[in-house]
Amino acid sequence: MSAVRIGPYTLHNGLILAPMAGVTDQPFRQLCKRLGAGLVVSEMVTSDMSLWNTRKSRMRMIHEGDPEPRSVQIAGGDAQMLANAARANVELGAQIIDINMGCPAKKVCNKAAGSALLKDEALVTEILQAVVAAVDVPVTLKIRTGWDRDNKNGLTVAKIAEQAGITALAVHGRTRADLYTGVAEYDTIAAIKQAVSIPVFANGDIDSPEKARYVLDATGADGLLVGRAAQGRPWIFREIDHFLRTGEKLPALDLIEVEHILLEHLAALHVFYGDVMGVRIARKHVGWYLATLPGAREFRARFNRLEDTEAQCANVQGFFAERYKSLTGDGEWVAA
Predict the structure, then answer these.
(1) In a shared domain, residues 150 and 23
(2) Which parts are annotated binding residues?
(3) pLDDT per residue as tens digits for the range 252-283
(4) Same domain, yes or no, for 14 and 128?
(5) How far apart are CA 284 and CA 280, in angstroms?
(6) pLDDT of 46 strictly over 90
(7) Domain CATH for 280
(8) Are 210 and 260 contained in the same domain?
(9) Pair (94, 202) in one structural domain
(10) For a tag site, which of 42, 104, 194, 223 has the least CB within 10 Å?
């Protein structure tokens, strides 16, 4: 996969960590970038600046130390609020603004934001024009293929986006009604790619190097967004990048390297969030990392009752020590 440009920025590859609320915080972004992602995008930030004083919003808006270019996703349904939020985020260090018109979550769609916006093409136009005019950094857009199977207007929205000055477009190959079920429609992404001249990134079900190659071939996309498949497996970017460049698969990670990455991630979460919050947030990440290993379910039940950082680290080390003892081969990590 060749390098991709977004405005003045050239990404070393077209593999992007998809923004996921509650997942793509700063520790995870930094880890995925180090492990091969060409771009990482922050968690979704509301455009309602009256809500920015909450601890959750403040944590989502820390960009110092983030790998550049720093891309920040904003969400909302009011053009002027989104424009103001874009401007404020640029002042806080954002170098790319990403607009969310892809999130299917009810609490987002019920506020006429996320993928709910796809219902109203006039409002889409107003929002995109307002945000592009408000900032002098690239503005990108994330969409789905439409609201439901009978209202698939992703192609129209893509053309609106290009005309409004959007720099790059990410398309999740499902409608809002599909949520995350069924099979992603790569043919729609291919049609959108053919219809516009801005970079198009494909999103949906990209969970292996082979699938990445298939999706690129099927869509003609300039790059890929990887979301859920990176949870507990941030090295997937390195695996995909190597496969796309060489046609060969990297050997599976051994347990020692997995343990090292997980402990590094844990330490970063504890530092970033502090002890109480860090311990809580670490629980889901540990669950994802260990999901495919024997004994993980029983371990997770115990791990989720731990209340301090030292105990978490010690228990993770103990879990891996047990796995090493039971290995008969070369310590190979077998991922699902």
Answers:
(1) yes
(2) 19-21, 73, 142, 172, 203-205, 227-228
(3) 999 999 999 999 999 999 999 999 999 999 99
(4) yes
(5) 8
(6) no
(7) 1.10.1200
(8) no
(9) yes
(10) 194
Residue 279 token pair: 């311990």
Higher pLDDT, 212 or 108: 212
Give exposure, 252-291, as e/b (b: 16+ Cβ within 10 Å). ebebeebbebbeebbbbbbebbeeeebbebbeebbbbbbe
Are 269 and 214 in the same domain? no
Question: Domain count of the chain?
Answer: 2
Q: Considering 220, 246, 272, which residue would you say is the last residue of a domain?
A: 246
Torsion of the alpha carbons at 181, 187, 193 and 196, rounded to the nearest 10: -100
Nearest-angstrom CA–CA distance, 72 and 154: 22
Q: Do 209 and 144 belong to one domain?
A: yes
Distant-in-sequence, close-in-space partners of 50: CB < 8 Å, separation ≥ 6: none
Average pLDDT, the chain: 90
Residue 333 lies in a domain: no
Q: Return binding residues for FMN.
A: 19-21, 73, 142, 172, 203-205, 227-228
Q: Using CB atoms within 10 A of its CB, is residue 331 exposed (0-12), middle (13-18) or buried (19+)?
A: middle
**Bigger pLDDT: 65 or 81?**
81
Structure tokens at 189: 């992404």
Nearest to 290 by CA among 280, 279, 301: 301
**Last residue of one domain, picked from the residues 246, 279, 308:** 246
Q: Is 313 an annotated catalytic residue?
A: no
In a domain, 108, yes or no: yes
Q: What percent of the chain has pLDDT over 90?
A: 71
Domain contains 336: no
- Both 127 and 25 in one domain: the answer is yes
Cα angle, residue 22 at apex, residues 16 and 23 outer, rounded to 5°: 40
State yes or no: pLDDT of 131 exceeds 50: yes
Query: Comparing 58 with 10, which gets the higher pLDDT?
Result: 10
> What Cα–Cα distance (Å) separates residue 267 from each residue in 27, 137, 271?
9, 33, 6
Which 8-state DSSP code applies to residue 17?
Answer: E
In this structure, the chain runs to a length of 336
Tell me, yes or no, whether 232 and 146 share the same domain. yes
Average pLDDT, integer, range 184-192:
92
- By residue range, what is the domain housing residue 68? 4-246
